[in-house]
C-alpha cells in the first residue's frame, strides 16, 4: 500500500530458541518463547499509544498451530449488520478463562506475557484465517476501548499477514507485517484512539491463527456480549467498515 509505513525487521529470534527448555511448562509441546523479549521493537503511535512488534517471539509456531487447529473448539460465528446476518470471514475459538483451557501451553504463553507486561492476562480468543479471503475488519477491542489504557497482545501463527492500524478519526494506516511466531502488542490508548484490522487480500495466503489476550472479566464471553450489544459484536461494533 502506497500510504502505509512498513514496520518489519526480518530478524526472527525464534530460530535461535531452544524448544526443549520449557517442555515441562508447555505440556510437552515443542515451543518456546523469548522470555527476554529481546527483539521487541516499540512503535510509538503518538504520546499515549504504542505497539510492540516482538519479532520471532515464539519458536515452534507450526507445532502450536497444528495442535490448536486439531484440538480447540472452533466455531463459525455470524453477526447482524443492520438488517442482515453476516457470516464472519474467519473461525473463532475462545477461552473466557485461560486458566480453564485444557492446553498447558496456553497457560505458559499467558504467564510469559503477564510476567513481561505486569498484568494478568486471563481471557483468550483465537482467530483462524483459513486463507487470504479471511480477515478482520477495522475495529477496536472491547471492553479495552472503554478503559483509560489497555495492553492487548496478539500472537501470530502460520502464514504472514498484514496487520494495519490507523487513527480512530481516520488517516493513514501503518502496516505491520506479522510472521508466524511474531507478537504484536497494542498498548496505552491504542484501543481508544486507533482502529486495527487484518484485511482480506488478493495475494494467496495459507492458514494463519492469531491468539488475542486480554484482561476482560470472565463473566461474559464475547459471544454473550455480542447478544447484549444488540446484534453487533463487542469488537465488531466499533468497526468503521463492513469488511468483516
Ligand atoms: O488476527 C489478528 O492479528 C488480530 C485480530 C483482532 O484484532 C481481533 O480478533 O480482535
Ligand atoms: Mn482486535
Automatic annotation (TrEMBL):
Superkingdom classification of source: Bacteria
Region (Disordered) location: 193-244
Keyword vocabulary terms for this entry: Dioxygenase, Oxidoreductase
Basic and acidic residues: bias regions: 217-230
Chain ranges of the Fe2OG dioxygenase domain: 120-217
Gene3D superfamilies, per the entry: Alpha-ketoglutarate-dependent dioxygenase AlkB-like
Any Gene Ontology biological process: DNA alkylation repair
Gene Ontology molecular function: any one: dioxygenase activity
PANTHER family (alphabetical): ALPHA-KETOGLUTARATE-DEPENDENT DIOXYGENASE ALKB HOMOLOG 3 (PTHR31212)
Name of the molecule in the record: Alkylated DNA repair dioxygenase AlkB
Organism: Allobranchiibius huperziae
